[in-house]
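hi! just following up on the protien thing from before. the input was this:
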Amino acid sequence: KLVDEVMEPLDVPSVQEYVRNALTALGIRYGFTHNEVIMTSDRGPVLVEVNCRQHNMDFAPITMACIGYNALDMTLDALLSSRGDSDEESDWHLYPSEPRLRAFGCMVHLVNSESGTLSHVNHLEEMGSLPSFFRGHVYEKFQKGGEEIQPTIDIRSDAGWVQLIHEDLEQMQTDYRQIVEYMPTMFKVE
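and the predicted 3d structure came back as:
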């Protein structure tokens, strides 16, 4: 989850400044970074991870819906601008210095808590009908009965993902909590 309920509303500018300062301290000046920060009520932001790459999932649809652009397009426009091309040949000049939210979005990784032979999967239709459901995918191993499955222990062993996007933060959070509630009974084993 991106933000603890206790921390809301999130002070986005302070998180942005924290990440910029962390990247500067690490000597990172250009290109993609995938940053993970835990927000705590007593300490504020705490850096968990910085990688010079994009997120390992297709985040572009979420960022397009939430802020109107994505890191891949920004990188292309930055490269075109840095070649000496005029701003008219790239869209770099159109990006704001700070993102402005027009919707809320998140990626939910599906956690499996079962061990054994998969018999069936529950809650897929219910998840698909949630108001903020955008798209999702259950990995093949977790789709068919008869497959041996093990509990999720890290990002490499999750069972799939769901992307949520909605104009109303409360609706998106309600749907997030519903998906988390589905997870313990989602994958049934024999």
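The radius of gyration is 19 Å.
The mean pLDDT is 87.
cheers
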